[in-house]
Design a protein that fits this description.
The protein is built from 10 helices and 7 strands. By secondary structure, the chain is an alpha/beta fold. The strands form 2 sheets. A 5-stranded parallel β-sheet has the order 2-3-1-4-7, sandwiched between helices.
């Protein structure tokens, strides 16, 4: 206990006050357990941090959680590491166990956003079983619905300045000089995934595996469809309407 008091003494008052104010604001927010579903480029990554901050939720990305569990050498992390070292896929039970573990953190007290999981109906069933044992359930599944042809234009037009992470788009946010970063004048690159061929295979996997997950949750009346081709600002407004109802 003494060490934690010493640690607090070293935190600037402004930081401590802003954290207290954040917690007070969060205490009035309703609990939310959300799943974000949508194909690559549908805008989940843009909306997710806004939803997280607005509703004081934790963001559970399964890839990051697996890496964190492995690094922390938790019992499940050790199991996951052994599986990955054999070149095998980590089982659904193990991933759900790691989500269960992560949900116990104080930052997940008001609920969570799950992004990238569940990808299959079997995973959705296991997730629901685990939540059911805790007496909770998924409140809303936000379905970022968008036509494949719009995604192709969005994704294949993306260019990135590698060292800063600045992103451009040939149509929607072009650089001043084609192929060159506005600030440094260094060349822009296109990510390996941002090509029509890679997008096509990722979309095929999404339609085949993940669309049944949307149907599964639709039967539970928790799916809200968002028109993801709208501007990010309009999508944010639609998300707020859905989550306040």
């Amino acid at each position: 206990m003494a060490s934690s008091v010493v640690d607090l003494e070293n935190i600037p008052s402004v930081d401590m006050m802003s954290e207290l104010l954040r917690r007070m604001k969060c205490s009035t927010k309703p609990d939310k357990r959300l799943i974000l579903v949508g194909p690559p480029g549908s805008g989940k990554g843009t909306q997710s941090p806004l939803i997280k901050d607005e509703y004081c939720l934790c963001h559970l990305a399964t890839g990051d959680m697996l890496r964190a569990a492995v690094a922390a050498k938790t019992p499940l992390g050790i199991k996951a590491k052994e599986t990955m070292e054999k070149g095998e896929l980590v089982s659904d039970d193990l991933v759900v166990g790691i989500i269960d573990e992560a949900m116990k953190k104080p930052s997940c007290h008001k609920g969570f956003i799950l992004d990238g999981f569940p990808r299959t109906v079997a995973q959705a069933e296991k997730l629901d079983d685990m939540l059911g044992k805790q007496g909770t359930k998924i409140d809303k599944v936000l379905n970022f619905a968008i036509d494949d042809s719009i995604l192709e234009e969005r994704i294949t037009g993306r260019w990135i300045h590698p060292s800063s992470g600045r992103t451009y788009h040939t149509k929607f946010a072009p650089p001043k000089v084609l192929g060159v970063d506005d600030v440094t004048g260094e060349p822009l690159i296109q990510r390996k995934d941002d090509t029509a061929a890679v997008l096509k295979s990722r979309l095929e996997a999404f339609h085949k595996q993940t669309e049944p997950v949307i149907d599964y949750y639709a039967k539970k009346n928790v799916v809200a469809e968002l028109k993801a081709e709208k501007s990010p600002k309009d999508v944010t407004s639609d998300v707020q309407k859905v989550l306040s109802s």
